[in-house]
Design goal:
Layout lengths: L3 E4 L2 H6 L1 H4 L17 E6 L6 H17 L2 E6 L2 H12 L7 E4 L3 H9 L7 H7 L1 H4 L2 H4 L3 E2 L9 E2 L6 E9 H6 L8 H13 L5 E2 L5 H12 L4 H9 L9 H15 L12 H9 L5 E5 L3 H7 L5 E4 L9 E3 L2 E3 L7 H11 L2 H8 L16 H15 L14 H14 L4 H20 L1
Parallel strand pairs: 1-3, 2-3, 2-4, 8-9
Antiparallel strand pairs: 4-12, 5-6, 7-9, 7-10, 7-11
Protein name: ABC transporter substrate-binding protein
Keywords: Signal
InterPro entries: Bact_solute-bd_prot1, SBP
Length: 434
Amino acid sequence: MARKTLTLTTAALTASALALAGCSGSGDDEGGGGGGDTLRLWHYENPDSAMGVAWDRAIEIFEEETGATVEFEERSFEQIRTTASQVLNSDQAPDILEYNKGNATAGLLASQGLLSPIDDAVEEYGWDEMLAPSLQTTARYDDNGVMGSGSWYGIPNYGEYVQVYYNIDMFEEAGLEVPTTLEEFEDVLAAFADQGITPLSESAQEYPLGQLWYQLALTQADRDWVDAFQTYTDEVDFTGPEISYATQTVADWTEAGYISTDATGLVAEDAGVGFIDGSYPMFFSGSWWHGRFATEIQDFEWGTFLFPGAEMSPGSSGNLWVIPERSANPDLAAEFIDITMRPEIQNLMGNNGGVPVAAEPEAIEDEKSTELIENFNTLTDRDGLAFYPDWPTPTFYDDLNAGLQDLLNGTQSPEAIQEQLGEQYRSGIEEYTE
């Protein structure tokens, strides 16, 4: 296979946003884009993840069928998130990339004219017929970059959601069962803490703790509150029962030893590895970890369950394949997207711990993968995908992480943090929609 992989360091990223994208293509390229028969592709999935495995196979098929070469350039989530606006507005934009969905991410780039609308390709390939309506929400954006209507700007070929991963061996040793209510969940947390074990592997520098905070709010919320929070259908009261419960509970759980204050210095990778190495009995995070855990966890049995006491959980369609406005090969990019939607690729994803959107159910053979997909279907059947807490504004991801770090450190009270987050949320929406 002619695939070429280029890995960039964080140091290279910080030196210059444009330097980050400065890797040249094949010998036919004259700077920027793919050009000729080269498709420049970015994504940030681990090669052992379900998406990484499936997309590697899609690259092979694409190269076999088109005769083109895929030049894959590895980026981290943070690298793409922090540099996309600059790079996609330059001659160094790739032809296709994985990008985070939501108003503050794909919606923002669409409203800035940095992504190509792909309505014609959707009609040509029939992608709209492959995606359930709830999964189409994050693929379409209006002129202000608000999801749910307007043109298509991306295609998800997998779903995702947040759930509890748990160490079955540690549960059995402690004489504990999977909780089915929020009260039972807190009893499990207390039981581990009483044994001197921090029950939750967490990260406050990146997304895991923010997703737990949001999940706690969802235990008190309904769909109207989610719509207001995510799509601005009504004002959101940051002193109301949803956010007040979430913020105070994170503070209480930290004080009780359920969450370590060390999480302020940890990133998502640290939290995931902490679960992999058996240091923590539970990790609340996304389905994107599932394939990696299946590959790397060898020393104990593990399982999953939906967060108890809530009808909704953070989740949505997966990230999007998007085609930059400056893509040199948009037709090839669309052809690659279509390959990732084929049953062969979807089934491969499902059997490697992913959540495919168009797989053949009878083709999913792995027991853990079947459980993963069934949990996702449970959420979609009850309209339980509530998106993610950082989506409403371009800066709320950083705002929320900073606020939760202060909460764990005890440098601000829950009330002060809620007030701060409310101000940041409102000002972010005003700036975003003006």
